[in-house]
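Researcher: Please translate sequence to structure tokens.
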Amino acid sequence: MIRQPDIVIPDKVDMPLTELCTSHNGVKIYSLPTMDFEVVRYTFVFRAGTSMQHKPFTASATANMLGEGTMQYTAQQIAEQLDFYGAYYDVNIDRDYVYISFCTLSRFFEPIADLASEVLLRPTFPEHELSVYKSKRKQELAIERKKVGTISRELFATALFGEEHPYGISTPESSYDDVTRADLQALYKELYTANNCFVVCSGRIDTAVIERIKQIVMGLPKGMRPVVEFPQINTTKQLHHAIDGALQSSIRIGRLLFPRTHPDFVGMQVLAAVLGGYFGSRLMQNLREERGYTYGVMAAMVNFDREGYLAIATQVACEVKDDALRQIYIEIERLRNELIDVNELQMVKNVMIGEILRILDGPFGISDVTIENIMCGVDNSYTEQNVESILRITPEELRTLAEKYLRREDLVEVVVG
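Model: Translation complete:
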């Protein structure tokens, strides 16, 4: 008879600490050597996200246009070089940061490092490529904004932060027409500087790799670390947006809370997981399994550089929207009034620890977590502390957090459909 092996949940997670060196112009380079893998990935992180722009869509356009032409290469030549070496180039942007990553087999590190230097230090933002980019993004955004989920996501951000706040502002797609090459050049000059950058390297890292990364970042001008004053947050508790002919309603409920380093952040992550953080969560059982209202529902803590918030999101048929809302609030009140069963809580802890282990299974996942820790001003021991906090938290502590942070009158509700 075949016996299924026991499930073993570790009581700790070993997170490697980074090795740090600093270039002569002040760029910090964090490395996570893992010689078992014949790959190298290095990510340049700039505080150049959308909250830093002076004109709509210029932050994302600047970041995405870096690889669309340089002093030495056209966009096609850059793409061909990457294909030839089997390398990977990726740009991501959020409210606060831009992440520019290059990944290659270690034996091809040098030619890809030369390409990275060209993309990072000598972009030309060609007029033709910019025109194509603007037209494509404008059309994509117009299509996305026909979806109730997209509309509710944007309205929820506006409800949380206010329509003038960089985290809440929503700009018409027609503003792409106003983006110019001069705008991109100006933003690049202001934000892509040594004082506004750090680098995280992972994989087969040796002294030669670090020295080459140093050479690249030494090409960045020193610059000034930009300071942006955010307007006061202006929260709206309820926004309902009707769309004639819509078959579904998109629901978002949540509230402003705090960034990731707040002492209650991990506890609220556990509460969010109980509520809607995995397939067997309470909202999934209620809205999907018992009532068949939705294919999926989620609840999570979201972390920005200056703020953090709780978000619950789902889409349901319009005719069951009111009862879906009622059921969500019932589940929230259960957390405030009843202790979570110890077996249910253990399941949630197992899921959360398992997800952390999945993310950390490989040098690139470790690198991603390291980047987030650096942005929060902590080292990688913080991840180990979070695991300990998850394992240690009790039903009584979670009910106290729910009583404090999940009062009905504090929640923001957005419904579109």
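Researcher: Any highlights?
Model: The domain at 19-217 is CATH 3.30.830.10 (Cytochrome Bc1 Complex; Chain A, domain 1).
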